[in-house]
Amino acid sequence: QVQLVESGGGLVQAGGSLRLSCAASGRTFSSLAMGWFRQGPGKEREFVAGITPSGGTTRYADSVKGRFTISRDNAKNTVYLQMASLKADDTAVYFCAAKFSLRADANGYSFWGRGTQVTVSS
């Protein structure tokens, strides 16, 4: 089993920045594509960003392109989401996800963290 634990959420003012981290258990991290999803109040869960096992390819939702950056450190079994120029619409629970795949797309994630709350005040 792959266990994922998010951290770094909190309250931030609009226009500010925040970095989320996701720590994964096990020795298979370098074989996992990783993703970030979010679910705002009254909304469905949506794909935010994805990254291939090597970190060579990333994908982003249109709503966060140019503002968010996904990265990973395979030596630390950790994936990050650097968020900048935050807006009130970014307020959501952010979830880390993983899959045994070479693709960074929005589909097929098998393992999920419990989420961390990000609140952006306007």
* Mass-distribution shape: globular
Q: Main β-sheet, in a few words?
A: 7 strands, mixed
Q: Extract low-pLDDT stretches.
A: none
Strand residue content: over 45%
What is the overall number of helices? 0
Order of helices and strands: EEEEEEEEEEE
Counting DSSP E segments of at least 2 residues, the number of strands comes to: 11
Structural class: mainly beta
Report on this model:
Helices cover 0% and strands 48% of the residues. It contains no helices and 11 strands.
What are its keywords?
mainly beta, 122 residues, single chain
Topology, element by element:
Elements: E1 4-7, E2 10-13, E3 18-24, E4 33-39, E5 46-51, E6 58-60, E7 68-73, E8 78-83, E9 92-99, E10 111-112, E11 116-121
Parallel strand pairs: 2-11
Antiparallel strand pairs: 1-3, 3-8, 4-5, 4-9, 5-6, 7-8, 9-10, 9-11
In short:
The protein is mainly beta. It has strands at residues 4-7, 10-13, 18-24, 33-39, 46-51, 58-60, 68-73, 78-83, 92-99, 111-112, 116-121.
